[in-house]
Amino acid sequence: MNFISIENNNTIPLQQIPLVHYDIFYQEVSKLLENPNCHCVAYYAFPENKEIVRFICCIADDVTHKILVTSFAKNLDDKSSLKSLTPAVTSMQIFEREIYEKYGVEFLNHPWLKPLRYPFDRYNKDSQIANYPFFKMNSHELHEVGVGPIHAGIIEPGHFRFICNGEKVLHLEIELGFQHRGIEQMMLQQDKLLQQTMLAESIAGDTVISHSTAFVQLMEALNGVEISENTKLSRTIAAEMERIAIHTSDLSALCTDVAFQLGSAVLQGLRTIIINTFLIWCGNRFGRKLIRCRKEPYPLNQELIAKINNNLDLFEKRYVEVANKMFDMPSVLARFERVGIVTEQQSRMIGVVGMAARSAGINRDIRSSHGYAWYRNIDHLPILLESGDVKARAKLRDLEICQSLNYIRQMLAKYETNASQTTNSFASKSASDSFVISLTEGWRGEICHCAVTNADGSLKNYKVKDASMHNWMALALAVRNNDISDFPVCNKSFNLSYCGNDL
Predict the structure, then answer these.
(1) What CATH number should be reported for the domain holding residue 105?
(2) Best CA proximity match to 205, nearest among 94, 319, 284
């Protein structure tokens, strides 16, 4: 096979990645993705020089815990089309759309080659967000409903176009790309590690810990740094605290949408306990400043460990009581059960990841399949549900909150407060002409950061993928054949990131 096999947080010379003809690339990638244990975590292009664009594809094998990497190249002057992988592997549609939008590389027979996020450096500047080519159905019995991009709440901008027969949703198309910060390009423009870390923290405001962890692991791999056991513990504790905080907030939002005001108020207050614990720990309620390369800037002490344990106990006692009420209440269950179903078959077909995948019976969790930090020391067993509806996505949050509480307590007990905090120092420069990949499991799902370096070790390319990129299509499928009034609970049950998609 024309792949090189690596592990999570591995650095390899770029020249070791096989460079093959596209026909071979197509055959081997499509063959590999027939295996249900494999899925694509990254497929993107970058200018290797002024004449050549290099395409890199990374496929994770969740059983062998390996990541298989291959590539092909195309001359910028070559305007010929490439045979689309999407008809054979539907989940590749999102990657091909991004490449087409960025570089103008057309994929022949792609069924949905539409703009993805309107980046500032897109190939066709005439492609304007105001002229997005929405799918149409012509019938006097049907009507369209547009929601956004300006919403009544405080969520970010995105446009939802429904085609309905009465109250029944037949089709939803989601248009994104209304805001950009140019994160990937800014990573290349900044030469200070602290500035780059702060950029990673800003990719998605509700996923500070997991995105910044992906970044620092990538940079540590490029520089050959081994971190201390305490640093691994503190990063993993923080990731599980982030999971608890956002899951609790999402359950509160779901209670709001079904008018269970007790659950809404109590759960939002409980989320505050967790994020205020971050405030005590590092001075920021979302964990900014907590994750830094090669070190632990805010080491735990016995007083802080006792405070975290006390807050977890306070949280759990109140949480279990209100969660039990929530999942026993007929008026709540009536709005959750058999609403917004995405089946296992649909989820596999479109490449759903993370929490949304596990709620449809798919065992996809980077913590167990491609472990990192202290997860390598935890016998993590992903929680799986099967119904794929709003109730499953809500209940999965509930079960993961309880699981995370147990993990954090176990890790706090292992933390050595008097241990040395030193790690080996950074190299004078990062590995040159190299490729590195870093995967983490955010509360929403898998996060992937990739980088390529120049001959001097500086960043030549930086690529970010949030779990939302995979899962927006799942939301579009979830509302089909549901009443349009069910859209808010479907939307909240996924809680996808607009800025994580638009970057």
Answers:
(1) 3.30.460.80
(2) 284
